[in-house]
Write a structure and sequence with these properties.
heterodimer, A: 240 residues, alpha/beta, six-stranded mixed β-sheet, 10 helices, 46% helix, 17% strand, B: alpha/beta, four-stranded mixed β-sheet, 11 helices
Chain lengths: 240, 238
């Protein structure tokens, strides 16, 4: 499902196994509880989170097959991912997505919910696939897209052409921070960046608050207008 | 005045005649009805390309018609501003990709008409974008500003477009991120380029309703102003 490794002040969260890392309820619960674990670690406000994955996929989105077999689970997966994204936005530490495989739809949203997106250029793409597979895009996804992609033309290309955005194109579009030759190089670069950030110091709690205010629109769409991401009690695990 | 023609997958909406293609209540009604026609005939893979003949794409509202009413001028202006909103709404809601191929100048509401398309191509050699309102002392309707904010990202570009009274040539408009292309040296060149883009979009055979829904959700504030419900089916469509 997912694993957590701590290297000094770096938390390395990995979506494990060679599959598509589809965001089904179990994986989402596992990710949320791992994020909670990270949040409650005493060193959390002087640390950095790196999220990466094994295999060909970062995440290929929601478990659509599951949703088809049980339609009520779409609502469940959507709610759990909203909570996870809110958790990431309120996390009292910088976050880095080391994208070493395809990130589609909800999987792309998950990657983009990190402060930094580092990506391999030799394989894989970011892909908001909804137009191609005839799915409607929830307003909260659009809030993430709007919060992270500044150019209206780039947002149009991502959402209205279902562009398969490779790392170098992503850098040009302002979605990806930097591109690397391989999966290993991407993860190494993420670790190096994480270490530089840790060296800079600073208070993770203040960082988290600032990020919440920068991405206020996303928080409004995920957890509502009057809640603060970090003030909602999260130690009980699943909010749903 | 304006025509709608279908060639293959592409609907060609053309503002005909060598005049300024100003928006007057009759033109507005015509354009609206042709857009409705395109919508009703749309299938997977449909695309709209809008262009004009002559020196102008469109030079804005028919101010002469408004002024000819003397004391009734303001009333006529209000009428045009109000009745033009559904034209932009129809474009934002059209169940197919839309491309504006600017054969010439686009000013004020004519520029808004162009910007309401998903892609805007200009000529390199001729034609300017011009928000004339600041020069002629006309306030800009709120839905015009909302459109500019929705489609133009940089603060500097928004200022240049809305507040500077500048006549922006193709290359400037591309640099400011207002239009997608100004690479071709003639009206035919621009149309050819848009047809080429149109064909590659048509080949995707997208579902027009889904396309329109995603487009609406890209511009929620603008859609609210145009009285288009942005997608409301938020949670239940994975």
């Amino acid at each position: 499902m997912c694993s957590l490794e701590k290297r000094d002040r770096l938390f390395i969260l990995k979506l494990t196994g060679d599959g598509e890392h589809r965001l089904n309820p179990n994986l989402l619960d596992s990710l949320r509880s791992t994020i909670n674990q990270i949040r409650s670690d005493p060193s959390s406000s002087q640390s950095v989170l790196i999220t990466t994955s094994d295999g060909k996929f970062f995440s290929n989105g929601y478990d659509l097959a599951l949703a088809e077999s049980n339609p009520s689970l779409s609502v469940v997966m959507d709610a759990k991912l909203r909570s996870l994204v809110a958790d990431l936005i309120s996390l009292p530490m910088p976050t880095i997505a080391a994208v070493t495989g395809h990130a589609s739809a909800a999987g792309c949203i998950l990657a983009m919910s990190h402060d930094y997106v580092l990506m391999r250029r030799d394989r894989g793409f970011l892909y908001m696939s909804e137009l191609d597979i005839e799915l409607i895009v929830p307003a909260w996804f659009m809030a993430v897209i709007k919060g992270k992609i500044g150019s209206p033309a780039a947002r149009r290309d991502v959402m209205l052409t279902a562009a398969k955005v490779t790392a170098d194109v992503g850098v040009k579009m302002g979605i990806v921070d930097s591109a690397y030759g391989s999966a290993t190089e991407t993860v190494e670069a993420a670790i190096k960046l994480g270490e530089e950030i840790v060296q800079r110091g600073g208070d993770g709690h203040v960082y988290g608050k600032m990020r919440e205010s920068l991405l206020r629109e996303v928080l409004i769409h995920t957890i509502g207008e009057y809640e603060s991401g970090s003030s909602v009690v999260r130690s009980t695990g699943s909010k749903l | 005045m304006c025509t709608l023609e279908k060639r293959g997958d592409i609907f060609h909406l053309t503002l005909t005649g060598d005049d300024e293609h100003r928006f007057h209540p009759d033109t507005i009604t015509s354009v609206l009805s042709l857009l409705e026609q395109a919508k009703s005939q749309s299938t997977k893979g449909s695309v709209l390309i809008t262009t004009g003949h002559g020196k102008f794409f469109s030079n804005g509202f028919d101010l002469a018609w408004a002024q000819s009413a003397g004391h009734g001028a303001i009333e006529r202006m209000h009428q045009m501003v109000k009745s033009f909103k559904p034209v932009l709404a129809a474009l934002l809601d059209l169940p197919m990709p839309t491309i504006a191929a600017l054969n010439g100048h686009a000013a004020a509401s004519g520029l808004m008409f162009a910007l309401s398309h998903d892609y805007v191509f200009m000529r390199k050699d001729r034609g300017v974008l011009y928000m004339s309102e600041v020069d002629i002392g006309l306030p800009v309707p709120d839905y015009f500003s909302a459109l500019v904010v929705a489609k133009v990202g940089s603060g500097i570009a928004r200022r240049e477009l809305l507040l500077s009274g500048k006549k922006l040539k193709g290359e400037d408009a591309v640099a400011l991120g207002i239009v997608d292309s100004a690479a071709h040296d003639s009206a035919e060149g621009v149309v050819e380029a848009t047809v080429s883009l149109g064909q590659s979009l048509a080949a995707k055979k997208w579902n027009g309703e889904v396309y329109a829904s995603i487009r609406r959700s890209l511009y929620p504030e603008l859609c609210r102003m145009l009285e288009l419900t942005a997608n409301n089916l938020a949670t239940h469509n994975l």
